[in-house]
Amino acid sequence: MGLTKSNPKTSEPDWATAYRGVNKVPFYLHNIDDKVTNEVRALLEEYSKIPPAEVLKHTIIGRLQRGESYMDVGCFLGQDIRRLVFDGAISDRLYAVDIVDHWNLGFEMFRDRDRLSAQYIESNLLDTSPRLQELRGSINVVSITHVLHQWGWDDQVKALEQLVRLSSSNAMIVGFQVGTIGAKEQPITELARSAAYWHDPASFHTMWEQVSRQTGTVWACTAVLKTWDEIGWNPSDVEYLGPDARVIQWVAERGK
Length: 256
Ligand SMILES: C[S@@+](CC[C@H](N)C(=O)[O-])C[C@H]1O[C@@H](n2cnc3c(N)ncnc32)[C@H](O)[C@@H]1O
What we know:
The chain is an alpha/beta fold.
């Protein structure tokens, strides 16, 4: 498949670049065959026209969201956007945002440069970007997956405030990330060298209440903790996160 071009910028925080090229760390999976479910295989074979024999070389994590306009924040290669298009979404109504350009690699992986018209915006969610400012108030569905858990409480609030500014009056903001039984600030370790806050549903509600207050908007948030088994991941792959780690899945709907 030839995903050989390296990107001079990386998506990791600075401290994580020390792990580049290193595969003797708990989060490096030597075999990812079990991640290629039938659904993933169908996307790669039918949408990307990748021969079946090559499919297991690819990993994507697909999430389907619908809406009049949709923004995937922290889009990485754009796999979720492709899944939406595969399921019938009109691709010029989709926006993909990332701090680092993985988007071009996504074209190489999905072989759709000539047919995907989703718009990519390179931006740090925590900064103001002119393009994101133009879109304020216009996005109906925002998705942010596996992004918030990298930050402490205050930066998570800042990130959600940005998403609220982007959202339309009837918007839904959805996401998931690493959570935990018993919300807590994670200690800085050799493996994760910046402070991060992992939520349980109660703390996530509290955070949304703060965001609602600070933005003068009303949001109803539902959040659940799921085990690795429940989301289809092999628990042994993420043992290094500790016995209390879970995935927190959530939906925030804007009220009047
Ligand atoms: C762990 S990946 C998750 C990718 C994808 N959403 C998923 O669920 O598979 C985190 C992504 O968020 C992006 N990201 C990290 N910090 C960001 C920021 N401040 N603004 C925008 N994107 C960011 C990274 O570049 C990376 O593509």
